Every structure is written in structure tokens, then in C-alpha cells.
Amino acid sequence: LITTGTIFRKNISEHTMLGELAEGFLKQGKLVPDAITNEVVQNRLKEKDCAVGFILDGYPRNITQAIFLDTFVFLTHAVFVFLPDEIVYERVSKRLMCRCGESYHLVTKPPKKSGICDVCGQSLFQRVDDTPEVLKVRLESYHANIEPVLLHYKEQGVWHEVDGAKSVPEVREAI
Ligand code: AMP
Fold it and tell me: Cα torsion at 43, 27, 64, 160 (round to 10°)?
């Protein structure tokens, strides 16, 4: 599983050059420029483990990235997890994260001990871009960019839609 957002966040917390380049964009809820993101993904896909297959999560997010990806791989499936904005707000505003990668939701998946990760015991935190103000920018960017990407994969015959409003096990099963 290759999650571009996680790659950027890891680089930010490790103060790498990539992290420094990406940080401002993540904080504001804006897309990291395509030239940077494309290079990150292309380099990651060159690694050995990807030879047997991979899942890209959060990439491509616009048509430029999708066209770039086509220059070196063919996707077998593009899964669009559809979720209305109201539910995105509900999920994201009550989301808590752990540095180990686990995530929680105050209503549907609360940690056993408030503010503490069930898996590793570290303190939970809210993502800096999960505030209502930044989420608004992220959703605007999403709506401005996604249509041509969906059309692109429909034309390639690899597009699938999954209802993201269902429960986690149901969404997992559908995917
Ligand atoms: P996510 O974890 O998928 O919500 O991504 C968090 C942030 O990382 C986004 O708001 C962007 O700033 C950046 N990001 C992740 N994936 C991409 C992408 N494919 N293109 C540009 N920026 C991205």
C-alpha cells in the first residue's frame, strides 16, 4: 500500500528535504505540486516490493498525475470510494491519529483509553489539516480535480465505484 499523504507526513516529521518542500502545502490543504508528487510515486514504484503489485492510495489526484502514471504503469483497477462531503466532515472532524499509523473516530471507533492508542500506547493527535477550515480547502481542491480522473479510468475500463458511507468492514469487503 503506497499512501502519498503518509509518505509526505513521514518526511515532514523526519525533517527531510521532501518534508520541507511539502509541509506548507499539507498545512494549507493544498495539493503538493505535481512535479514533486509524481517523482515521489515514480521512485517508490521502482522499489522491489512493487514488482509483484501495489495499491496506490491518494494518487493520482488530478488528471496530470493520472497521465504521468500512464507513462510507466498500467493500472488493472481504479477504485473510487464515494463519500458525500457531509459525511467526510463528520468522519474527519472526529478523527484521531497515532504516529504508529492507527486511526480512530471519537464516535465509531473510540480508543479504549481516551487519547491513547490501543495498539502502541502513544498519545493520539488530530491531523493539522483535519480542522474544518483546512478540510474546506481540501474538499474544494478535490471537487475541482477529480472529474477528469474518473473519466480517464472509465475510458480505460478499469473504473469501479464503492459506497464509502458503509461501515469499515463493508467498504473493505466491497473493495
Ligand atoms: P491525505 O493523507 O491523502 O489526506 O493527503 C494529505 C495531504 O498530502 C494532501 O492534502 C496534500 O497536501 C498531500 N497529498 C497527498 N497525496 C497527494 C497527491 N496525489 N498530489 C498532491 N498532494 C498530495
Answer: 90
Half-sphere exposure of residue 113, counting CA atoms within 13 Å on the CB side? 8
For atom 6 of ligand 1, which residue has the closest CA?
Answer: 5
**Rounded distance between C-alpha atoms, residue 167 and residue 110, angstroms:** 15
Cβ contacts of residue 63 below 8 Å, gap of 6+?
Answer: 145, 148, 149, 152
Burial of 49 (0-12, 13-18, 19+ CB in 10 A): exposed
Distance CA 97, CA 44 (A): 24
Q: What is the pLDDT of residues 128-144, one digit of tens each?
A: 999 999 999 999 999 99
19 lines ligand 1 (CB under 6 A): no
In tens, the pLDDT along 94-117 reads 999 998 889 999 999 999 999 999
Which protein residue has the closest C-alpha to ligand 1 atom 2? 5
The amino acid present at 71, given as its one-letter code, is T
Residue among 20, 32, 64, 89 whose CB has most ligand 1 atoms within 8 A, to mutate: 32
Residue 32 CA, ligand 1 centroid: distance in Å: 7
